[in-house]
């Protein structure tokens, strides 16, 4: 099934991530690590305690393995306390595969028990989790697979797999899905003009007069 969620905080979060990524190719990429091991024959790089930053995006992990430092076309594997942070959002997982193309992140696949993300925007917190989260910046899609769960801070969507499109702001599930709609909080009744609000009656029997 497909459902439009134009006002969900999740939609705003992922759309902002995709839009910001399109301008990063002209920004420098900085790689910092506590230690490194470069195998020239195998063209494999191994880093410990690594941080990669480009503009507003920052990737940290305990360990990383890369096919090279050519960010025009390279594949990276991160493990141990992986975190991908952007201006107002973040992804956290046990492991991640990140593909760099044309000098910027093209796609990221994060896995964990579970992998999760969080987005803070306009006093709302959007959260999601799944066993695997695939974020394709080129196509503008985010797929949550394996016990997928999304919330805008009040309402929840759960399914085996959920796919979100940043292009047309749709959440799609081809499998059974459950929506949990929380009731809105009701404001307390206002007292008549000029009258003080009546305090609640005490619990239990009334005392003798």
What are the SSEs and their pairings?
Elements: E1 2-4, H1 9-21, E2 30-39, E3 44-54, E4 57-66, E5 73-85, E6 89-101, E7 104-121, E8 124-136, E9 141-151, E10 156-165, E11 170-172, E12 177-180
Antiparallel strand pairs: 1-11, 2-3, 3-4, 4-5, 5-6, 6-7, 7-8, 8-9, 9-10, 10-11, 10-12
Describe this structure in words.
With 209 residues, the chain is mainly beta. Strand 3 and strand 4 form a beta hairpin. The protein starts with a strand and ends in a 29-residue tail after the last strand. It is 6% helix and 57% strand. The model is unreliable at 3-21 and 203-209 (pLDDT under 50). The protein contains one helix and twelve strands. Strands 1, 2, 3, 4, 5, 6, 7, 8, 9, 10, 11 and 12 form a twelve-stranded antiparallel β-sheet that branches. The radius of gyration is 23 Å and the shape is elongated. The chain has one domain: lipopolysaccharide transport protein A fold (Sandwich).
